[in-house]
Design a protein that fits this description.
Elements: H1 9-14, E1 15-17, E2 23-25, H2 39-46, E3 49-51, H3 54-63
Antiparallel strand pairs: 1-2, 2-3
Family: Belongs to the bacterial ribosomal protein bL35 family.
Protein name: Large ribosomal subunit protein bL35
Keywords: Ribonucleoprotein, Ribosomal protein
């Protein structure tokens, strides 16, 4: 007999699964050394992006939504 499936908390903090099943993540490289990056680049990084392909299925499995 197997136990309940647990959510990987590290994945839960980094990704979000929408109601339609898309997996979203934040852009990287926004936290430090911001002075050398343009405001346009920093704004673009703050927009959530969709994860696609095989990685999407792996993340869904980690989150218990597969």
């Amino acid at each position: 007999m197997t136990g309940k499936q647990k959510t990987r908390k590290s994945a839960a903090k980094r990704f979000k699964i929408t109601a339609t099943g898309k997996v979203l993540h934040r852009g990287h490289g926004v936290r430090h050394i911001r002075s050398s990056k343009s405001n346009k680049r920093l704004r673009a990084q703050s927009i959530p992006r969709e994860v696609t392909g095989r990685m999407k299925m792996k993340i869904k499995k980690m989150m218990g939504a597969a």
